[in-house]
Amino acid sequence: LHRNPGETEFHQAVREVLDSLGPVVTKLPAYTDAAVIRRLCEPERQIIFRVPWVDDQNNVQINRGFRVEFNSALGPFKGGLRFHPSVYLGIVKFLGFEQIFKNSLTGMPIGGGKGGSDFDPKGRSEGEIMRFCQAFMTELYRHIGEYTDVPAGDIGVGGREIGYLFGQYKRITNRYESGVLTGKGITWGGSLVRTEATGYGTVFFAQEILRSRGESFDGKRVVVSGSGNVATYAIEKLQQLGAIVVACSDSSGFVVDEQGIDLELLKEVKEVQRGRICDYADQRESAKLGEGSIWSVPCDIALPCATQNELDDKDAAVLAQNGCAIVAEGANMPCTPDAVRLFSEAGITFAPGKAANAGGVATSALEMQQNASRDRWSFEYTEERLAETMRGIHDRCLETADEYDAPGNYAAGANIAGFTQVADAMLALGVI
Ligand code: NDP
């Protein structure tokens, strides 16, 4: 803790993983001898840089940029970029740390990293967004590359921003290096299903949990928080599988729609009009704005898909009271440690983000494969690869949990399975 003062979210993420690893290090002392855990907690490299740009009023704006290259034992650093005013080193490090285990769980050759900026895209014009992205890449370009570090999107960074970032990378380097970024548009090196992948993947993971109980999504009431990339495509897949999504949100509030969220309208409001969730409520008769917490809306399954620590122990208690049976994290670390403890006491099955939302990065790895082979796969084929990956992660979490006497504990299974694969690679590569 004293090495990383004030980095609250990073401490939280590290503690959560280390809490699960006791039985592993006892069984395999080689990890301790080679200081694997201490090395894992220290990023290989962290870059912090100035991002100067000029706004529409001709004022010079200064933001702070980050790229934390956490661990490359399994492959090039891989992880998204987040543009949000709350971004600081502690958030980037928590996300980068989580990413190591998540990427390991996918079974694909990718290491862990994360980056971003405290830039707030809200209310900024197209021109401002483009100039900011260009300024950000003007420093970042020297640190990334197909074999080095491959960023993607996250909160505040979607297809539009990846386009401006890729354009600037191409301009500076004079290289059409498709494999340097993922989440690209379909006509310029992107993969079908990447946009949908995190949301779809989270639903596929929850579907596996249901399947193991002989149940399905058909007729289930689901609450999804957020209304960005992950939430939107989680809702789409849930509806395709027969669930009724009764509520979603953004940072200004939430809507309850007992008829089920009208996804076309939600996409129009959020992606085209770039409006707020209240604009959805204004345009839909069956929807009303909710009060208090979105987790007070009764549901069978809850998918937090907005941001870290958005669901606390009070929310968890209300979910339990209302009979919620499964919580699967579409976002990174959206449930507080107290909430997770409460799920366990209440018998709610909990699927942690590093397993349940790994479909996004897994499909990014598929995008890298397509770029490397200059190939392009169909939607159906790519979606099947995603579904297969999520089934694989699900089964691996359960098998590992069983092996370490924690049956049904997806969080322990994910941490241990993700850890052992990286740790074994680190042992093989020597003390570096
Ligand atoms: P988006 O920017 O597309 O959407 C984020 C959504 O969450 C928006 O509805 C936003 O509301 C809401 N939100 C953001 N910050 C807050 C906050 N502080 N309080 C309340 N609501 C908030 O991001 P994504 O959908 O891409 O990411 C959502 C989560 O999923 C993040 O935790 C991310 O790390 C994780 N994730 C994303 C992946 C991806 O492929 N995109 C992959 C794996 C995980 P508003 O618009 O009002 O800000």
**What would you call the structural class?**
alpha/beta
Major β-sheet profile: 7 strands, mixed
**Unreliable spans:** none
How large, in whole angstroms, is the Cα Rg?
A: 21 Å
CATH topology of the domain at 197-347: Rossmann fold
Mean of pLDDT = 97
CATH class call of the domain at 197-347: Alpha Beta
Give the names of the bound compounds.
Answer: NADPH dihydro-nicotinamide-adenine-dinucleotide phosphate
The helix content is 40-55%
Shape: globular
Order of helices and strands: HHHHEEEHEHEHHEHEEHHEEHEHEHHHH
**Number of DSSP helical runs:** 17
β-strand percent reads: 15-25%
Strand order of the largest sheet: 9-8-7-6-10-11-12
Number of E-state strands: 12
Distance between the termini: 23 Å
Full CATH superfamily name of the domain at 197-347: NAD(P)-binding Rossmann-like Domain
| CATH architecture assignment name of the domain at 197-347 | 3-Layer(aba) Sandwich
Pfam family, one: ELFV_dehydrog
Subunit structure: Homohexamer.
GO molecular function, one term: nucleotide binding
Active site: 114 (proton donor)
In short:
This protein is α/β, with parallel strands linked by helices and 432 residues long.
Characterise this structure.
- By secondary structure, this protein is of the alpha/beta class.
- Among the domains are: 42-177, Rossmann fold, CATH 3.40.50.10860; 197-347, 3-Layer(aba) Sandwich (Rossmann fold).
- 47% of the residues lie in helices and 16% in strands.
- It has helices at residues 8-20, 22-27, 30-33, 36-40, 89-106, 126-140, 159-173, 194-212, 229-240, 263-272, 277-282, 313-321, 337-346, 353-356, 359-372, 379-403, 410-429, and strands spanning 45-54, 60-71, 77-83, 112-117, 149-152, 221-225, 244-250, 253-257, 287-289, 301-304, 326-328, 349-351.
- The strands form 2 sheets. A 7-stranded mixed β-sheet has the order 9-8-7-6-10-11-12, sandwiched between helices. A 5-stranded mixed β-sheet has the order 1-2-4-3-5.
- Helix 12 links the parallel strand 10 and strand 11.
- Helix 5 crosses helix 17 (410-429), helix 6 packs across helix 7 and helix 12 (313-321) packs parallel to helix 13 (337-346).
- It is globular, with a radius of gyration of 21 Å.
- NADPH dihydro-nicotinamide-adenine-dinucleotide phosphate (NDP) is lined by residues 153-156, 158, 198, 226-231, 250-252, 305-307, 310, 330-332, 357, 360.
- Substrate binds at residues 78, 99, 102, 153, 364.
- Homohexamer.
- The active site is at residue 114.
